[in-house]
Every structure is written in structure tokens, then in C-alpha cells.
# Entry
Amino acid sequence: MKEKKTKIKNATKEFDLTVADKGPDKYMLRLFITGATSRSVQALSNLKKICEEYLEGKYELEVVDLYQNPSLAKEEQIIAAPTLIKKLPLPFRRIIGDMSDKEKVLKGLDLKRIV
Amino acid sequence: MKKTEKKLLSNKLLKSPTGIQGFDEITDGGLPAGRPTLVCGGAGCGKTLFGMEFLVRGATQFNEPGVFMSFEETNVELIKNVASLGFDLDNLAKHKKIILEHVRVERSEIEETGEYNLEGLFIRLNYAIDLIGAKRVVLDTIESLFSGLPNQLILRAELRRLFHWLKEKGVTAIITGERGDETLTRQGLEEYVSDCVIMLDHRVTEQNSTRRLRVVKYRGSIHGTNEYPFLIDENGFSILPVTSLGLQHIVSNERVSSGIPALDKMLEGKGFFRGSTVLISGTTGVGKTSIAAHFAEAACKRGERVLYFCFEESPKQLMRNMLSIGINLETWVQKGLLQFQATRPTFYGLEMHLAATHKAVNDFKPQIVILDPINTFVIGDKDFEVKTMLMRIVDYLKSNLITAMFTSLTSTDGRTANNENGISSLIDTWISLRDIELSGERNRGMYIIKSRGMAHSNQIREFMLTNRGVELRDVYVGASGVLTGSARIAQKAIENAEVLTRTHDIERKKREIERKRKALEAQIISLYANFDSEEAEAKKMIETEQDSIKRLEQDKIEMAESRKDVNEIIKTNNKPKKHKIDES
# Structure
């Protein structure tokens, strides 16, 4: 759940840099959660399932705990939790909620066509 | 007794002063400390500004840092917008006094995929509050979330949680909300924020716009319930707390001269009370402004500050006109003791006039305020409103111990116009000027209708405008009524002539008596003389009579002696003593 928590400072910058390196097909995802609440856990597991199913090998997921990095909430304009940010491929999207509505998650990730 | 008082005091709701002019007076100390307050109103009524001033004053005056969470304007926009009010947000942000937090909600970017909450927002707010130890928070306008997040159920639940959380956090918060059609706010935020609700309003009546503020609700505190007009200008908000706190003015026994010695004489020789309200009413052209100018000049001479509101003449015109009666106001303007505020009554609404008056008085801090004239406010049928406005002005001036002089134009036919009746109860000293038309001329009369708290003359004085200013004369009051002007002079001449003939009469009588006395005396003298001569004659006669008597007696004796010789010799032998006597 907190796998990629190591990059804290300048996480956004590094994230942006890595984003620039990747090709257009690569999905750069970032999930903001609030501690180990059931909703956070649920969102993560739901998202992982979807990614494995539709984006295997094509995505990078970073999970950020807002309690640990409150300043990121401002930088990334986070209001709701959990929030998934899709920086790439464009358009920029915020997918909020526990990712239980698969259709909507796919729509948010612009994966509906593939289905 | 004392203990319970202390207990009550500690139980009392703590207040967080806003520093906004007038607001703390209406609410008896400010917003409820540690609780959220809802500020609602239509577009452009000043909600954001109210919140911002609350924060800025908190940071600069009360050392309470604050967080401004904006859901509409970006930080850059905010900084620019409030710079015009003299708030340097940039600087305050640099010194960690204020944090500006812009929350951007873009509907098109967001996809809802199940249950969520607004914990992200909570975290941001919490982080910002803790970062600078904020005591104040403004959320402007949180209702924007409703357009960004479609799930209203979640949103409402989360807002309820947010306000609760703010209370727990102990910050004094302002939440702004757009006014709804039938509810106070579009999204019914008043349901959640129930401690204090303030409504701002921006109304246009008769082409005049007026901003008003009303405290709809304030749990656990007394507060003014009226609609209070307010101004937004280069110094931020100023709200008029007028008539909020009852009649508890300080009173002064000090007297201020009216500037006209003869008028002072009518008022116990001392003039008006400081802090009292004086009304000069009269028909047109009767000299109301001249009296006001006298009053202003006298005050400036004493070194007091005078604020003169003129609603009909421009200051320049007024100063020129007053020169003709020997009053030079310009010097006092230059010395900074006299300030003119000239506005057309139609320029603002009544409330705005009130607000502007308030502000000008606050800024200039005068001892004397003159409003010339007040009845120009009455346009149409707004008597009641005018009265309340004047009452508020009077109230405000009194509480600051400012002596006020109003002039009021009355109609030529009636003694009192409606306007005066309306406000007369507010007035402490009321001087009436009136025309006295007689024998083809118009003269001015002055009398005091009332003057609270002092003995005052009941006489009508003739009131004259000369090149040395206002002068008062005693009018002629006689059997034929009140006479003024040339009639008075003629009457006086008649009286003088009468007096002259009377004195002549007296003189003549005196002389006559003198003459009579002299005649009498002469008579007495001649009588005396007569008497003397008679007396002398009589005396002479008496003397001769006596002489003759003596002679007769002598003769008798001699005769007796000659006859008695023989007898006598015998006798003398017996009585030798007697003989001796006879011999001697």
C-alpha cells in the first residue's frame, strides 16, 4: 500500500520528469489515499485489478498517503479521497472514489474503447 | 454574588473581534470565537471582502494568523483585488500571517467511481492551519463544490463534518454562501452553520444603491437586529452601528458659545451644551446658514474642529457668501480646523449618506458637526426613513460628545413643517427663525422654541444680518403687537417724542412750582415787613402808654407825699424801717 512512499520530497517534479521520459502509451497514475481506511484499501485493490486487467505492463502506479504528505494535497489540488490522478496520456483526469464502479474508472482512464 | 458573576463571565461566549469598523459594536464584540459563521448574500455584495478583512485585521491587529481558502478566485486574483483596499496580502503571506489556499474544482476532469469523502480538503486545511498556527479561517465560497462534485449526498454529509471539525479545531471560521431564491444560501448551508448567520445585501432604490448588513442569527449573544448600512471604500468595510446600543450617552455640562453674543445671552448667557443637538429652522433666506457659519467660526476660534456638511451650496460659494457678513471661513479651512463635505443629497441613498457622514466624522474627529440643511433629504414620501437616519446621526454624534447643528427649511405658511415635527423630539435646542411681514417689509425674527436643561429667554428678538455678522435687537412688543424693522423704529420715534413732551411738561410744572414758591416767599417777606412796621408802631404806642402810666403814678405818689406829710411823720415814728425804705 505504501510501496513507493520513498520518494517524498519533490515527488511531483520527479514524477513529471519520469512522465516526460515515457512514451505516449505509458499510463502514469498516482493514487492519493488517506491512511489505511477501508475505503483506501478498497480503492487500491480495485484499481490494481483494473490495471492488471487492461494495462498490464503499460502503467506505473504511485500511491501517496496524504496524511504523510499533506503538502502534496495542495500541490495536486486534491479535495476528495481517494483520488486517482491520470497525468498521462492526456487528457488529465481525476478519478475519485473507491474505484468500485469499474465502468466509470475505465471511462476515466479513457480505456472504454478497448472494451 | 461576585462568584456567580465570575462564573457567568467565564461561561459567556468568547468573541473574536473582527476589527471591521462598526461590526464589533453590533455584535457586542465580534464573531463567536472558535465557531463557524455563515456570511451570505447576493453577487457583488462584499462577502469575500468581509472574510478577507476579517483575516487581515486578525493578522495585523489581533495577532491571529488566518487561512483563506478560496474556491473561486485564484491567489493572484485575490491579492490584486484586495490591494485596492490597502491590504498587502503578498506581504502578509510572506510573513506567514496569512495563507491563501486556492481550491480548484474542475467538473470536466472529475470522474466519480464510488464512495469517497473530502478528506483531501480536510488535510489541506489542517495542514495550512497548523503551518502558521491559524486562529481564523475563511472558506469562500464553499458552495462551488456543489457544481464540481455531483454527489450531493456525500457533499452534504462532508460539509456537516467539515463545520463540526472546524469547531473542534477551535478556529473562528467564516463560510460564505451565495444567496438562494427562498433560502439564505443556495445550498442551504444555514442548516449546518447555525451559530451565527450574517446577511449582506446590495439594494437599489430610486436609483441609489445601498449596501446593508444584518445579523440574522447569533446564538448565545445579544446583537443588533436591524439592517445596518455599510460602505466599502479604500479602507475596507465600515458598518454603522447606529441605534444599536440604546440611550447611554455621556453628558457634558460644558457650554459652547453660539458665536452670537446676543443669542448666548438668550441661553443663560453661556450658549449650548456640548454634545447637544441644535436645530435652526426657518423659512428660506432667513439666515440659517449665517447662524451656522457664526457657530463654526466661533468654534474654530476656540481651536476646535468643525465638519460642515453642505447639501445645497458648494463650499466656495458658501465661503464667499459668508464674507458678506464679515465671516471669513477660508482661513479656518486653510488651518485645517474646518472641513467641508459637499454632496448633493441625491448623490447617495439615505443610508449611504449616513454611512458617509459616519465615516467623515470618524476620519476628521470634529467637536462640532453642521448639517446644512437636513430637509433636502426628504424627496418623496420618506419622512420616516429620514427621521430614522437623523436619529442615527444624532445618536452617533451624541455618543461621541459632538455638538451638532442642523438647519432645516420650513414652508412659509406653517409654523412647523412635517419634517420638523418628525425630528423635534431628537433636538435639544431648537431655534426658530421666522419672517415677520409688516407694513410693507419683511423682517427676521428669532426665538427659542426649546432648550433642554437650561433657562432660556422666551423673547422674540429681531434678527439682523449686518456686515459685522448677525445682530439681535429687542423687538417692540406692545398693544399693537410685535413690531419690527422700520415699524419698530417708527414706533420707537413716537415713543421717544412722547417721552420728550412728558419731560417738557414736567420741567414746566417744576418751573411753575418754583415760581409760585418764589411768589409766596415774596409775599411772606412783605407780610413780615408789614408786620415789622406795625409791630414797631405798636411797641412805640405801648412805650408811650407805659410812660404815661408811669408818669401818672409818679404824679400820684408825689401828690400823696405832699398830702401825707403830717400822717407820715407820725407813722415814721412808729415804724422807723418803713420810713427808711421810702427814703431810698
Notes: The first helix of chain A runs from residue 11 to 21.
